[in-house]
Amino acid sequence: MKPTKRLFSIAIAALLASAAVQAQTALDDVLKSKTLKVAIPTDSAPYGYVGTDLKPIGLDIDMANYIGKKLGVAVELVPVTSANRIPALQTRKADLVISTLGKNAEREKVIDFTIAYSPFFQAVFGPKALNAKSFADLAGKSVGVTRGAMEDQELGKVAPPSTDTKRFEDNNATIAAFVSGQVQFVALGASVAGNMMAKNPQLDSEYKLLLKDSPNFIGVAKGEDKLRTRVNEIIAEAKKNGDIDTMAKKWLGRPAGDLPL
User: Fold this and answer.
1) Buried-exposed string 95-125: b where 16+ CB fall within 10 A, e elsewhere
2) Arithmetic mean of pLDDT, 50-58
């Protein structure tokens, strides 16, 4: 190999090695600053919402604090919407995303995921008076959905072309549209829908159609394997000692059960 080419190869190798080192700084940075920044929801009860004291509470908040405690660091909660939770991770505004985040191939291209930490599923809900026994029954009907959420993606795969899908910026806006009659149906996570139906019994709403079983995973910046591995260890231990089931019982009314890796 000629000296020039050899020097070029060495330079490229050095750059790649440097990039690899930089891509593994998240855990070290967290431990050094003694602060873990976690993106969390504030409009997805019971996973994350604002309590009577105006502070975020819910399963995702408990999980964030649990991980912080295991790492021995303080937790800084970063409220996000469905649309900006992944960008918050990519721009380093957050070290982790614990925000009812489902895993799919599209998201795996831009971020990494831990093992699952809680159960979740998405569905279409609507008034008992409106028939919807199959997705074909949504033809010509209006359905509210939160922009960028898993429900938005899954509904697009199965809804007839004539379905009037109306997208809103967060769950509160989506629910408000349904409650006010702007849309006939709504696609939400089951727990969010359950909370909505409990607060609005006059709607006489019910579960209609399953979109997807989608357990929640924690989002980690692409390439941050040290942080992801450490969080996986914490989740695995929490599953083994029953802490995951305890959190699920507290907020969802049932154990977490078998969750995928």
Assistant:
1) bbbbbbbbbeeebeeebbbbbbbbbbbbbbb
2) 93
